[in-house]
Design goal:
Blueprint (H helix, E strand, L loop, with lengths): L10 H15 L2 H10 L4 H23 L8 H24 L5 H8 L2 H10 L7 H18 L7 H24 L5 H22 L9 H29 L1 H5 L2 H15 L6 H18 L9 H7 L2
Helix pairs in contact: 1-10, 1-12, 2-5, 2-10, 3-4, 3-9, 3-10, 4-8, 4-9, 5-8, 5-12, 6-8, 7-13, 8-14, 9-10, 12-13
């Protein structure tokens, strides 16, 4: 049996899962940018990605814990609702990659912590001075990354901001109503919902099909495995332990890693000022870790999780 050292809080498990999730999330923008720039319809891209991920997860659960394939009516209702908002987030973010570089889209997406904390505030979560400082540092970093007066397509920015709001709603729904459920079960039903909703949208649009190249298929498969399957298992497991507010504070780490991958593999280039912005975003993530072991679920939130 694993025993935690006296100085090592079990909450570290949650933070470690969230860190791993953000590493996995960081490949989404570069790979998504590659797939969409090669002519694939964003809705079809989302359907293929999440269908593959759902198949992977359902197969894993069926072999390891077949009882986790089932969820009660209450859990199903909230998992589907969370999946609905997640499907909107996935589609709007994939669509934004038609207009924005991967690094730029991810930088704007780093507004996620603010959106989550604002939503949590309506449910009684304390909006602390330290949270404001962390967010301010991250926002300053994003400002430097984008650049004062930068020429950023407005439609792309609006799509990313919409994705931020939708994903934030999904995160707090998981915290409020699905914390009592197994994270793999929650992730599975959310993945299925994403595939169904975006599959319906693709069909309504005319269900146009263009055979992807071998490289595009490989990219989608890699994204399904790392950016969807592994990331969601880690992320929902982390939320169960530390809450969505604290989990979202580490999203700047994803942004910085995304910039690194985009620079290495997509030849997107950053100026020295933009690198300073990236360093500030990383600092924001490091400051969030200072709350390790101190994050607690408010009683009101625990009650909501059982509804």
């Amino acid at each position: 049996m694993l025993h935690w050292p006296a100085s090592f809080s079990p909450n570290w498990t949650g933070w470690l899962l969230v860190v791993l999730a953000n590493v996995c999330f960081s490949v989404v923008s570069p790979i998504g940018r590659y797939v969409v720039s090669n002519g694939m319809d964003p809705a079809l891209f989302v359907v293929l990605r999440w269908s593959m991920a759902a198949l992977l997860l359902s197969g894993t659960v069926a072999v390891v814990e077949p009882q986790r394939l089932f969820i009660d009516q209450n859990g199903l209702r909230f998992a589907c609702l969370a999946g609905l908002f997640n499907s909107f987030s996935a589609l709007t973010f994939a669509s934004s990659l038609k207009y924005l570089d991967a690094s730029m889209a991810s930088m704007i997406y780093s507004a996620l912590p603010l959106a989550v904390l604002v939503l949590l505030r309506f449910r009684g979560e304390k909006f602390t001075y330290r949270n404001l400082v962390r967010i301010a540092i991250a926002v300053l970093g994003v400002y430097l990354l984008i650049g004062p007066g930068g020429d950023v397509p407005l439609i792309g920015v609006l799509l990313v901001l919409a994705a931020v709001v939708f994903f934030a709603v999904q995160l707090v729904l998981v915290q409020w109503y699905l914390r009592a459920y197994n994270p793999r079960t929650v992730a599975l039903y959310i993945m299925i919902m994403i595939a169904l909703v975006n599959g319906s949208w693709w069909w309504i649009q005319g269900s146009a099909w263009h055979m992807p190249s071998q490289q595009v298929w490989l990219a989608i498969g890699l994204l399904a495995l790392v950016g969807s399957y592994l990331s969601r298992i880690c992320y929902y497991g982390g939320i169960q332990r530390i809450g969505s507010g604290q989990a979202s504070m580490l999203s700047p780490l994803e942004t910085l890693l995304t910039v690194v991958w985009a620079t290495l593999f997509l030849q997107e280039r950053l100026s020295p000022v933009q690198w300073i912005g990236g360093a500030l975003i990383l600092l924001s993530a490091l400051l969030a870790i200072q709350r390790l072991g101190r994050a607690r679920w408010r009683p009101r939130l625990r009650m909501g999780a059982r509804m």
